[in-house]
Design goal:
mainly alpha, two-stranded antiparallel ribbon, 2 strands, binds heme C
Length: about 375
């Protein structure tokens, strides 16, 4: 009896030591910001990866319960490009967030299973790792939670979490991949979305001509016109863009991670067709407010704004020149910019075009995508 108790006590101490050692390994292996919450649930077992941010971006925030590994990232990439996540095997995450168009899509409103249309334009996945809230209205607190949305959304992938899990569980290749990444072949929706989120945290764009000029101190990196455009972009008396599309001392996310009303979608009487952030908070000040998107790789991401109603960058700039659409909740930082000369407008466009960076090498479709084609 006694030896049994001693034995079980030793076992408990051993288990605690293992957990502590595991934490120490993660903390030392990664320079990234670790969230304060304690790890819960199943942890990845593979090779820990420190995601290196390119020039002009900060360390990637990593949740304590989902440190990235080579295996979870590879699995997440596979899932991201696999239409197996949709009801009829036709739509993958990449259908609406494709690498060839800056991880968005070309439609004003995204098209899901059966040609169904949603009510908003697809935002970019680029640098979404830095968003403090996900979606235009901030309704998901993390990439993990966000990824649960589209599978069960009737106008996107139009299936259920249970159906996705059952399908993946029936595929021996996926079972093996989950085992490698998570130490278990018992697939759950949590492991699916954690893998996808880890992949998304590698979809980073920095080191653009702007970054090489501003943070890399290469004076030749930016054209004279784009340099003038940068000055106009940050000047509160000129473009006043950086008040929301933030440029920091050490890095630039081009978003304040806040919500603003620019009057997009307002009719001539100031009536809004989408209340945006208000639907989440019920706070009147949030009426018609949408999250400030990053402007990284913006030139690749037409059409623009939450309703995709502006086909070119020039049109998007035109909205600001006009001071936004009048409505009761228009952001106080929106002013008419019609005093900007045509040359100055071209300079701002040249600056926006300088924000396009090369995609990282491993974020395109995985090599064996052919297997996935029907
Ligand atoms: C049918 C098109 C469609 C599919 C498929 C789709 N998305 Fe989206 N995605 C959207 C739209 C539209 C939004 C914005 C919706 C909103 O804000 O209300 C969005 C929002 C997002 C965001 C938030 C970005 C931000 O800046 O807030 C992320 C991240 C994202 N999707 C990733 C994914 C992943 C991962 C998948 C696959 C599991 C996926 N999407 C599948 C259309 C799609
Ligand atoms: C008051 C804050 C604010 C200011 C000032 C501001 N923006 Fe924006 N920007 C936003 C928000 C919020 C959105 C998304 C709004 C929406 O879709 O309803 C946006 C969207 C955009 C888009 C479209 C991005 C996409 O993913 O579709 C571009 C381009 C853009 N802004 C450029 C600029 C430029 C250039 C300036 C200066 C002339 C500027 N912004 C000033 C907050 C701001």
């Amino acid at each position: 009896m006694r030896t049994l108790r001693v034995a079980s006590l030793t076992l408990v101490i051993f288990a605690i030591a293992l957990v502590v050692a595991e934490h120490a390994r993660w903390n030392s292996a990664s320079t990234a910001v670790i969230a304060a919450s304690q790890p819960v649930g199943i942890m990845p077992i593979g090779k820990p990866i420190t995601i290196q941010p390119p020039l002009g971006l900060p360390a990637v925030p990593i949740p304590a319960d989902n440190p990235p590994t080579a295996e979870t990232i590879a699995l997440g990439r596979q899932l991201y490009y696999d239409p197996i996540l949709s009801a009829d095997n036709t739509i993958s995450c990449a259908s609406c967030h494709g690498p060839e168009v800056g991880f968005t899509d070309r439609n004003s409103f995204s098209i899901g299973v059966g040609g169904k249309k949603g009510g908003r334009h697809s935002p970019t996945v680029i640098n979404s790792a830095y968003n403090t809230l996900q979606f235009w209205d901030g309704r998901a607190p993390s990439l993990e939670e966000q990824a649960k949305g589209p599978m069960a959304n009737p106008v996107e992938m139009a299936t259920t979490h249970d159906a996705v899990v059952a399908r993946l569980q029936a595929d021996p290749k996926y079972v093996a991949q989950f085992k490698q990444a998570w130490g278990t072949g018992r697939i759950t929706i949590d492991l699916v979305v954690k893998s996808i989120a880890s992949f998304e945290r590698t979809v980073l764009c920095g080191n653009s001509a702007f970054d090489r000029f501003y943070y890399g101190h290469d004076k030749t990196a930016l054209s004279e016109s784009a340099q003038r455009g940068l000055k106009l972009f940050v000047d509160p008396k000129k473009g006043n863009c950086a008040v929301c599309h933030t440029i920091g001392e050490k890095y630039a996310l081009f978003t304040d991670n806040k919500f603003h009303n620019l009057g997009i979608g307002a009719d001539i009487n100031g009536n809004l067709n989408d209340l945006g952030r208000f639907d989440q908070t019920k706070n009147a000040a949030d009426t018609g407010a949408f999250k400030t998107p990053t402007l990284r790789n913006i030139a690749q991401r037409a059409p623009y704004f939450h309703d995709g109603s502006f086909p070119t960058l020039k049109d998007a700039l035109g909205h600001y020149i006009g001071g936004g659409n009048a409505n009761a909740h228009l952001d106080k930082e929106m002013h008419e910019l019609d005093f900007l000369s045509f040359d100055e407008r071209d300079d701002i466009l040249a600056f926006l075009n300088s924000l396009t960076a090369k995609m990282p090498p491993d974020v395109g479709p995985p090599p064996d995508l052919a297997r996935l084609k029907k």
